[in-house]
Amino acid sequence: MNQELKNKTEKYIMNVYSRFPISFVKGEGVYLVDMDGKSYLDFFCGISITSLGHSHPRICSVIERQSKELLLTSNYFYNHLQVELAEYLIQKTFSGKCFFTNSGTESNETAFKLCRSYGQQKKNGASRFFSLKRSFHGRTTASVCLTGQEKIHKGFGNLLDGHTYLDPDETKVLEDELKKNGDQYCGFFIELIQGEGGLYPLDREYVQRVKELCEKHKILLVVDEVQTGIGRTGNLFCFEHYGITPDIMTLAKALGSGVPIGAMIAQENCCDFLATGQHGTSFGGNYLSCITALETFKVIEEENLLANVRSVSKYFFERLRITQEKFSFIKDLRGIGFHIGIELDRPARKLVEECLSRGLVLNVAGENTIRIMPPLILTKEQAEEGIKILEDSLSSF
Ligand SMILES: Cc1ncc(COP(=O)(O)O)c(C=O)c1O
User: 372 C-alpha vs ligand 1 centroid, how far in Å?
Assistant: First the structure.
C-alpha cells in the first residue's frame, strides 16, 4: 500500500472511517485488483452495491452512451427515463408513485417526511415513529433517529424525541404501546434483514403481525430495502419472502450498480401527501442514474440472476454448515440468498483482515458477524474459491 496515499488521506479526508490498508484500482466481474497488482475475490460489493460485478459490459456501455447524450436537466423538466424506471418499479412492487433520490439515507428521509405529512393531514398530527433496536437506516438526521443503535446517536445532543425503539421479533411492548398511544404514531420503519446490526433476518410471523397492527392503527409500514433490494435475497425485493406489502419501500445501493441512485416507492394510500414544493432534489432521478438502474434490471432478468442467487445460495449454506462444524467458534449461520452472516463467539475484524491478506474481500456486521454479500453473478466455483479462503483464514484465526 502506497504510504503517500495513506498520509494524504489522513491529511485531506475527514477521519470518519476505519479503513483497511488497501486501495483498489481495477475491478472485473467478481474480482478486484489493488494498486500492487494483487487480485481479490469480492464478497462485499462495496456494501451490497456493485451487484452485477465490476465493469459489467452492459453497464459500461449505457454509461458511455448516456454520458454523450444527456446527463441531467433537473426536476423542473419532464424526464422519460425517470418515468420508465418508475413504471418498472411500480409493476414489480405495488401500485403507487416513486420519488428518486441519490442514496439510501435520502430515500429514508423522504419516507420520514412523507409519514410525518400523512400524520399531519390524516391522523390528527400523529408524528411518532416505531423502529427496531439493532436497525440501521442511514446517517442523515432523520435516519440517525430512526436507527435503533445508541452508538449511532451518540454525540449529537438530543435528537430522539418521538422515537420508540422496539426489540425485534417481540410484539408485547408494541401492542401495549399501541393500546395507549397508537393515535400518536405515523410510521414504522423496518429492515427485514437487519444488515449493519449483525445480519438478523426478522421472523416472518412477527413481520406479518406488525403489518396487521400497522393497518389496524393506520400507521405507515416503511420497509427499508436499501441493502436487501434488487435481487440480493434471490427475489427482486425481500418483502416478497415475507408475504406482506409495505406501504412505503426505500431503495438505493444496488439500484444503480455503482452509479448513485435511490428511490422511495409509496402506495396509493399515502403517495400524495407531499405537495409541490414540500420536497425535492437536484441530482435525484437524473438521466445517467435512471438509465443505469433500468439496465441493471434488464441484466438481472436476461441473465437469470435471481435463479442464480437461489441456487448458489443453497450451495453456500450447505457448504458453510460444514465449515461451521469444523470451527467451534462459529456460533451461528443465517441469512437469505446472497445476504449471509456468520456469527463468531468473538470480534470478527481480525478474521476479515486475515481474509483480505489471502485475497477475499468481505466485512463485519455488528461486532462478531462476518457478512458475505457477493455479486449476483457469482458461480458455484467462485463461491467455493471464497469459502476455501475463508476456511484457511479461520484455521489461522
Ligand atoms: C438498511 C440500510 N438503510 C439505509 C442505509 C443508508 O444508505 P446510504 O449509505 O446510501 O445513505 C444503509 C447503508 O448501509 C442500509 O444498510
Answer: 16
CB neighbours of 127 closer than 8 A, spacing ≥ 6? 116, 119, 120, 162, 184, 186
Question: Closest residue (by CA) to atom 8 of ligand 1?
Answer: 104
Atom of ligand 1 nearest to the CA of 105: 11
The answer to whether 290 touches 81, Cβ cutoff 8 Å, is yes
Alpha helices in 217-286 (DSSP H): 239-242
Q: What is the DSSP letter of 196?
A: T
Residue pLDDT, tens place only, 252-296: 999 999 999 999 999 999 999 999 999 999 999 999 999 999 999
Domain ranges of the chain: 59-302, 308-335
- pTM equals 0.98
pLDDT in tens, 338-379: 999 999 999 999 999 999 999 999 999 999 999 999 999 999
For the domain made up of 59-302, give the CATH fold: Aspartate Aminotransferase; domain 2 (3.40.640)
Query: Which amino acid, residue 344?
Result: L
112 lines ligand 1 (CB under 6 A): no
State pLDDT tens for residues 176-186: 999 999 999 99
231 Cα: distance to centroid of ligand 1 (angstroms)? 16
Helix axes 305-326, 287-302, angle to 10 degrees: 70
Q: Closest Cα partner for 137 from 46, 251, 44, 214?
A: 251
Q: Is 371 in the pocket of ligand 1 (CB under 6 A)?
A: no
DSSP 61-93: HHHHHHHHH-----TTS--HHHHHHHHHHHHHS
- Which atom in ligand 1 lies closest to the alpha carbon of residue 195? 16
> Ligand 1 within 6 A of 103 CB?
yes
**Ligand 1 atom having least distance to the Cα of 228:** 1
Decide: 104 in ligand 1 pocket, CB within 6 A.
Answer: yes
For strand 39-42 and strand 96-101, is the pairing parallel, antiparallel, or unpaired? unpaired
Place of cell 438509465: 291
Q: 254, 262 in Cβ contact below 8 A? A: no
Compute the distance between CA of residue 161 and CA of residue 261 in angstroms, rounded to an integer. Answer: 30
Give the distance (Å) from ligand 1 centre to CA of residue 48.
10
